[in-house]
Every structure is written in C-alpha cells, then in structure tokens.
Amino acid sequence: MRKRSGNDLRDRFLGWQCRIRQIAMRQDGGRPSPGMRPRLLDVAVREITGALTVLLVPRHPEESTAFFRFQVMKTADPRDLYERGLTYLQADYFQKPETFSDTLAAVLPQDSPVASVLIEGGACVLAFHQFSQSYSLPCAVRILKPGDATREAAIWHNRLFNPALPDTVHVVAFQPDWASAKSVAGPEGPKSVSL
C-alpha cells in the first residue's frame, strides 16, 4: 500500500468512484457494483459487514435532491420512477468528481444492528475494492439529523429505487481521515486491511 497526500488521495478516490458509478448506471442498470459497497470494519479492523452500499453526495445537493423528490412525488409507478432516475444518473451526474463532497453516506433501517455498532463506535474503516484498485479509508461516523442536506439527498436518491423508504431510516455520514487513508493498485484486492 502506498501513502499519498490527503488531497491527492481524496481526488483520486472521488475520480475512481465517479468512474465506477458511471459504469454501474450506464451498463448495469444502476445496480451497485463492488466498489460502491465497501467492507465495513471497526477501528480494530474486525468486519462489521461484508458490504455496505454508500452514496456519493454532491457538495451542493439541493438541485439533484429537488429532482429526485419531484420524480418520486410525480409517479406511483416504480418502474417509471426507476427509468427516470436512471436516465438522470446516466447522463452527466457523475461527470465531474470535483462537484462531490468527500463525505460518504449510507441509508440503514431504523432497527439496523450495523447502525447501532456505528453509532456506538463513532468511527470505522471503509475498505473498497474494484478493478484492481483498493482504498482503505478510516472514517469518523455520525448520524445525520432530519433537515440535513446530505441526509435529504441520500433519502431521496434511495427512493428512486425504493419509493417506500420510510423517513425513520438512519442516514450515516462517513468522513474519511485522508491523512491516514491508503490506496493500493494491483490485480488482487487486499488480503486484509491494515492501517
């Protein structure tokens, strides 16, 4: 694993995330790929869960959140909603990595044991791998409160694919510590994650 400066690593990670998300939207019908579903580890590097879908959220999510909300409210047909949302995400949504925040978000059910572990621990490691590229991101964790722009963006984005998503979900924000993050490129993923 090689260390990079925090800003360089952050920019490379966001560029990589945008590329794999473009592929997922354009080639796989929006189905989350492995690089969008990191392993979730506690700070002692013990696995909490093997895969957790995380979202990239724009730095200024108001426009996309308004679009997602409008689409969800506009139709009762889940297939139509899915098609409209996917068309939006396939266009230029992931075209400019610099427009995205480096805070990642995940939506979890209210009674989720994973959410409980994250709330109690306050920190974790997200271990990403896809296309011979891996990232290990130590993160501070917090639960976003109603009205938070990132929380609203995550909920309405997820409702494109699950319109029945309740308001009572937990939206977890992961803020990477870029100074401690690591990346590795190679044909095999990480055998284990170390910090």
Question: Which properties best describe this structure?
Answer:
195 residues, alpha+beta, Pnp Oxidase, Chain A, 5 helices, 8 strands, globular, disordered C terminus
Overall mean pLDDT stands at 91
Radius of gyration: 16 Å
Amino-to-carboxy terminus distance? 10 Å
Q: In terms of structural class, how would the helical and strand content be classed?
A: alpha+beta
Might you state the CATH topology name?
Pnp Oxidase, Chain A
Structural summary, described in words:
The protein is of the alpha+beta class and 195 residues long. It has a single domain, classed as Roll (Pnp Oxidase, Chain A), CATH 2.30.110. 35% of the residues lie in helices and 25% in strands. The chain has five helices and eight strands. It has helices at residues 6-27, 62-74, 78-90, 113-121, 149-159; strands at residues 39-41, 47-49, 55-58, 100-108, 123-130, 133-143, 170-176, 182-185. Strands 1, 2, 3, 4, 5, 6, 7 and 8 form an eight-stranded antiparallel β-sheet that branches. Helix 2 (62-74) packs parallel to helix 5. It is globular and about 45 Å long. Mean pLDDT is 91; it is low at 188-195.
